[in-house]
Amino acid sequence: MKTALLRAVILVGMGVGFAFGQNWPLVWADSFKYQGHVDTAKWHFDTGRGPNNDGWGNGELQYYTNSEANAIVNNGLEIIAIPKDTAGGYFTSARLTTKNKMAFKYGRIDARIKFPKGKGVWPCLWMLGNSYPDTVWPHCGEVDIAEMMDATGGIEDNIISSTAHWYWGPICGDSCAYSLSYQDSVPLADAYHVYSLTWNSMYLTTFIDGDTIWNMAISNTNPQMAVFNNPYFILLNFAVGGRPLYLTDSSQVTASMPETLFVDYIRVYSSGVGVLPMNNNHRLDAFGLKIISTTENHLTASFNLPYTINQVSISMYNLSGRRILMHNYCFTGGGNRYVNLPFASNLISQGACIFELKINEASERKIITTQ
């Protein structure tokens, strides 16, 4: 570790040459090493058939629930599609997201997953721009890391795809999409595989067990790709049927239901902008927090203080969530404020720490890494 300089990673994008095996700090994970209900401190359940009750815009045949019948942890996450329920769809299943729990920008996702199989299954590990739903799809951006769209129940049991969706004015009509697929020699339901995404300001790249599936240039100098240089949150869902699979009736789904999507773990590593909420009161960009400069023993930050508030608390945490220092400040009046914080670089472990600004019950956080 260099001791002369620290880097506030919210200000620095990553360069070209994004190696798969690079050692970035772990900023968020769920290893599912417990039993019972899904950890709602980390995951939110989307329920129903979508905001317009139309199968999430795709005519999907499932109704999402937060029931343990559809999502349960048994030393590993199991998302289960159950046939012909009466809850409003032909099937019930689950859709988990980290919206308002965790979002990040630049880094790597690893997820060890065993996919289901059979005609009609549509599971996916994917991301949406953190501005959704205030920014509508596809303007918010979408990245499908590992998606199985099994319309036949045959060779498609062996195929996984990665796709990006975005909006580019009149060039692509309603939405642009770029997709590539990987075909295994055996069904992907036969074994667990590690599906990964690496992401910097220049490229998105996906992998299966370290082998490249898909790569897309997203240069931050290209305004059409700007949506892919914003924070994203993670989704994990198991849909059934729908218009994209040309399966619009339950009688067309011949998968041997119930089918299960198994997830051993999901891990997020980030050396770009990281958001690591430690309580439900976290808000992204709540106070315009900026890390201006860092040295071996000093840190300067700025933020916008509401005029009705004068008490501010600043803390730092290591990546296991243990607080390593805290300072309280008192200001007169609101507006843009600066703090100069004594800081010892030897407090950082695993190459990073979390800087938290807390005002009343709301907080904003940034990740700081060593350079």
Can you offer a commentary on this structure?
The chain has 371 residues and is an all-beta fold. It has 2 domains: 26-270, Sandwich (Jelly Rolls), CATH 2.60.120.200; 274-370, Immunoglobulins (Immunoglobulin-like). It is 1% helix and 46% strand. It is built from 1 helix and 28 strands. The protein has one helix spanning 55-59; strands spanning 6-8, 26-30, 35-36, 44-46, 62-64, 71-74, 77-83, 91-93, 95-97, 104-105, 107-114, 121-129, 142-147, 159-166, 176-183, 193-199, 203-208, 211-217, 232-240, 259-269, 273-274, 290-294, 298-305, 311-317, 323-330, 335-342, 352-359, 362-370. A hairpin with a 2-residue loop joins strand 17 (203-208) and strand 18 (211-217).
The 3D shape can be described as: elongated
CATH top level of the largest domain? Answer: Mainly Beta
Gyration radius, rounded:
22 Å
H-E string: EEEEHEEEEEEEEEEEEEEEEEEEEEEEE
Distance between the termini: 7 Å
The biggest beta sheet is recorded as: 11 strands, mixed
Q: Could you say which structural class the secondary elements and strand pairing correspond to?
A: mainly beta
Beta-strand content estimate: over 45%
**Can you tell me the CATH architecture of the largest domain?**
Sandwich
As a percent range, the share of helical residues equals under 10%
Summed up, what is this model?
The protein is mostly beta strands and 371 residues long. 1% of the residues lie in helices and 46% in strands.
List keywords for this structure.
single chain; 371 residues; mainly beta; Jelly Rolls; Immunoglobulin-like; 2 domains; eleven-stranded mixed β-sheet; seven-stranded antiparallel β-sheet; 1 helix; 1% helix; 46% strand; elongated; disordered N terminus
